[in-house]
Design a protein that fits this description.
Layout lengths: L12 E4 L7 H18 L11 E6 L4 H14 L4 E7 L2 H10 L4 E5 L8 E7 L8 H8 L1
Parallel strand pairs: 2-3, 2-4
Antiparallel strand pairs: 1-5, 4-5
Helix pairs in contact: 1-2, 1-4
Length: about 140
């Protein structure tokens, strides 16, 4: 996903919802890019007919619904399944990602930031935060 400036900060992509970079358009592009990168990073033998999967959770911010739908559209457009688990704390999304042996996890949350903010945080297949190099691959 080519961007003019770096959009990943210390804890994913964060900002005011519906203002770049936390828009539906950016979430759609991030979903496509992430689906591509994660299926390359975690290649595994899937049973016939099975597809890679990404876990997606969020907090209770209203903007999470907009971002969730955009991410799902981007991810599924590349043939990756999304398990939408709804509102759950960030560590819960990481745990479920690892427990279900998903290819990756994503949580929509801005943690302690103001309610009008939101963020997109990615997890590796093992439930840990992405390395800077992987974030850079998604941005490219």
């Amino acid at each position: 996903m080519k961007q003019a400036t770096k959009i990943f900060g210390t804890d994913g992509v964060r900002g005011v919802a519906n203002v770049e970079p936390v828009t539906a358009e950016t979430a759609l592009k991030l979903g496509r890019a992430a689906a591509h990168v994660f299926t390359q990073l975690n290649p595994r033998t899937l049973p016939e007919g099975a597809r890679p999967k990404i876990v997606l959770g969020k907090d209770t911010r209203l903007s999470g619904y907009m971002l969730e739908n955009a991410l799902v559209a981007g991810i599924t457009s590349l043939g990756v399944d999304v398990l939408v688990i709804g509102p759950l704390p960030t560590p819960g999304v990481a745990y479920i990602t690892r427990s279900l042996r998903a290819d990756a996890g994503i949580v929509l949350s801005a943690s302690h930031n103001p309610y009008e903010d939101n963020g997109i945080k990615f997890f590796r297949h093992d439930g840990y935060k992405l390395d800077d190099q992987v974030e850079a691959q998604i941005e490219d």
